[in-house]
Amino acid sequence: MLDLKKIVIKNWVLENKTTLKNVNLFYETFGQELGTAPVVLVNHALTGNSTVVGENGWWNDLIGENKTIDTKFYTVLAINIPGNGFDGNEENQIVDYKNFTIRDIASVFWQVVFQLKIESLFAVIGGSLGGAIAWEMSVLEPNSIENVIPIATDWKATDWMIANVLVQDVILNNSSSPIQDARVHAMLLYRTPESLKNKFEGKVNPKNQRFEIENWLCYHGEKLEQRFQLASYKLMNHLLKTNDITRGRERLENVISNVKSNIHIVSIDTDRFFVAKEDKETYEVLRKVKSNVYHHKIQSIHGHDAFLIEYKQLNEILENVFNIIYIK
Asked: Which residue range or ranges hold the AB hydrolase-1 domain (predicted)?
């Protein structure tokens, strides 16, 4: 059962110096009661939300009782990106989406954490957009996270990312079926030709005589339209191009040298959205100035979406992070 909790942010100062007052944010907690156990913050991806476990949980294979992130031992906190529409509250929608950056989201997440009287986080973990927010959170509070785990993401927006955000934005602002059409395009960024060939093999559906790949893409577009709002999609997509932990700061190695956290960068070898080569280059730079940075790679034919598919590999990567302080 959905158990959304609300917290009010009295003053949220954006990067562009705009101040928003009395903003409602919504979050969920799982596992141990706040204040009684180490806290793991899970940041959701573009079309995700705070329901990470349970009947509709999108990360049940990683989080839960006796799972890698064991809710018998940890408090799991998940905050909805403001404006993602998950609370169903129209007045909480953020309409002027281009005013916001990933740094703004990371900043307001820290406000939530501190208002909940959480002094430090055992881990911040997230895939894709959620992982980018994790990078920024680590820089904003360099002494407050023990483990930062950005998965299938990057600390900056590449030209490739910026280009694809533009394509999505054009679709979202010009299509007669914006959510469906943008989702159809996005799914091709999240998977690989090999993944689609393995899944469909050029088969035709005998009921409607369409290729199965066409049915699958249309299904995902229609499904997202039923549960997601246009303003939310525009905002989440836009945030991806605002990602840069060095903006207005120093070079990457100087910025990260101040971060005390263990940093576990998790790449997917076939990711064509956030490409693994970028993570490798980041790791090579950071390991010269930081001893506790690690690079892990998931092997998969599925591309970007492998962080939601290859659970065995992801669990194997993360079990040493989450099991080191106790024995099951």
From this structure: 38-159
